[in-house]
Write a structure and sequence with these properties.
By secondary structure, the chain is of the alpha+beta class. The chain is built from 12 helices and 20 strands. Strands 10, 11, 12, 13, 14, 15, 16, 18 and 19 form a 9-stranded antiparallel β-sheet that branches. Strand 10 and strand 11 form a beta hairpin. The structure holds adenosine-5'-triphosphate (ATP), glycinamide ribonucleotide and magnesium ion. Magnesium ion (MG) binds next to loops. Pathway: Purine metabolism; IMP biosynthesis via de novo pathway; N(2)-formyl-N(1)-(5-phospho-D-ribosyl)glycinamide from N(1)-(5-phospho-D-ribosyl)glycinamide (formate route): step 1/1.
Length: about 400
């Protein structure tokens, strides 16, 4: 489709967090014009964009206002919580929505993407059932068995998610899921608990006029359903890498369009199990800021603009570890950065979020090491030195 297009292009970013910030930097390096949008002022990506707007991205009217005002060539979602039906309308008017308007709609609903992967494409996923009431959740939890994982169908970053050990915990999981569900959705998914050896993100780059390509797998650890550490390359066998690439290709082909996808898998002793995917750079992929010649944000930009990606080079054992807030605050300052940076092959990024609350991701530590363990140790040590005051 859009190969050899002219630069600069006008890019509208819907969501302006840490992932958007790095994307804007990549876009700016090629001289593009970026309008950064989010629900609050001075969001990370707004700090580096050409201009910004604060709107509710769940409001079709608000989206209409900013699109009419700025007339972007591309609309690039950076978060899930967007009125995706409206994106379909923009697409019909000739604006390119990344990866496609339909794909952003599918991937913000766990049930739709799950049905696509499992029912239509025959991909192995965790066993799952849905519930709309507590009574239904009790019934389907018994069918799935314990432990299991309860999640709102509409949520991200582990919000509303719990591991349920037995029947006595179902009611609590129900309330937690319902109160953390996005919008007014009351649909809950319960999944078989997968006792994986490792979970990975396979960054998958779908291009307009060139074959789909992959980054080496990224291993990661999660707490409360949210990412804590990631590392690359993940130590998994070649046949499992090929199996995950095959699934990632199948699912992203079904979604269409162009851009990077973070495709999540659980790897057990014998199986590669598809979990979900982001049609955009992935938080665990921040490790590529240190681990690759082209990071996931540069790859996303090139794929979107139809620019060539001749070679992805992995630069050696690398890791990332998150820097989290522990308290609510609206005056942000850090100590310990100098101490963290004194170590060789360590880097720190502070996102510039204007406020903090418990567990909010405020920055990330990046490191290279002699092996994965060494890189992880260096990244977590550096992250632990940086303190919010
Ligand atoms: N069925 C499962 N079995 C075992 N662990 C699971 C299961 N589902 C989720 N988890 C754990 O919880 C984490 C978050 O789950 P999931 O990716 O579905 O949530 P999310 O809200 O979409 O998070 P994000 O938006 O950050 O990707 C997973 O990475 C995994 O560690
Ligand atoms: N797993 C999705 C993810 O990591 N998304 C990233 O977090 C930001 C929201 O952060 P906030 O909640 O601190 O505002 C999003 O804008 C995106 O950059
Ligand atoms: Mg996930």
């Amino acid at each position: 489709m859009k190969t050899s297009l002219q630069l600069p292009q006008k890019l509208m970013l819907l969501g302006s967090g840490e992932l958007g910030k790095e994307f804007v930097i990549a876009a700016q390096r090629l001289g593009n014009y970026v309008i950064a949008i989010d629900r609050y002022a001075n969001a990370p990506a707004m700090q580096v964009a050409d201009c910004s707007e604060v709107i509710s991205m769940l409001s079709a009217d608000d989206l209409e206002t900013v699109v009419t005002k700025h007339q972007p060539d591309f609309i690039i979602p950076e978060i899930e919580a967007i009125r995706t039906e409206k994106l379909q309308e923009f697409e019909q008017r000739g604006i390119i929505v990344i990866p496609t308007a339909t794909a952003t709609n599918y991937t913000m609903n766990r049930d739709i993407i799950r049905e696509l992967a499992h029912q239509e494409l025959g991909v192995r996923t965790a066993e799952y059932r849905y519930a709309f009431t507590l009574e239904e959740l009790i019934t389907v939890s018994d069918e799935i068995g314990f432990p299991n994982v309860v999640k709102p169908v509409m949520s991200s970053s582990g919000k509303g998610q719990s591991v349920v050990q037995d029947r006595t915990e179902v009611e609590k999981a129900w309330s937690y899921a319902i109160s953390n569900s996005r919008g007014d959705s009351q649909k809950i998914i319960v999944e078989e608990f997968i006792n994986f050896e490792i979970e990975i993100t396979l960054l998958t780059i779908k291009q307009w006029d060139a074959p789909t390509i992959f980054c080496p797998p990224i291993g990661h650890s999660q707490e409360r359903g949210d990412y804590q550490e990631s590392w690359q390359p993940a130590n998994i066998s070649e046949d499992k890498i090929l199996a995950s690439q095959e699934i990632a290709k199948k699912v992203t082909d079904a979604l269409g369009g162009a851009g990077i996808f973070g495709v999540e898998f659980f790897i057990t002793k014998d199986e590669v199990i598809f979990s979900e995917l982001s049609p955009r750079p992935h938080d665990t992929g921040m490790v590529t800021l240190i681990s690759q010649n082209l990071n996931e944000f540069e790859l996303h930009l090139r794929a979107i603009l139809g620019l060539p990606i001749p070679h992805i080079e992995q630069l050696g054992f690398s890791a990332s570890a998150v820097i989290l807030a522990s308290e609510k605050s609206d005056s942000i300052a850090f100590t310990g950065v100098a101490d963290a940076l004194a170590e060789k092959d360590v880097d720190i990024q502070l996102f510039g979020k204007p406020t903090a609350h418990p567990y909010r991701r405020m920055g990330v530590a990046l490191a290279k090491g002699t092996d994965v363990e060494d890189a992880r140790e260096k990244a977590t040590t550096a992250a632990s030195k940086v303190k919010l005051i």
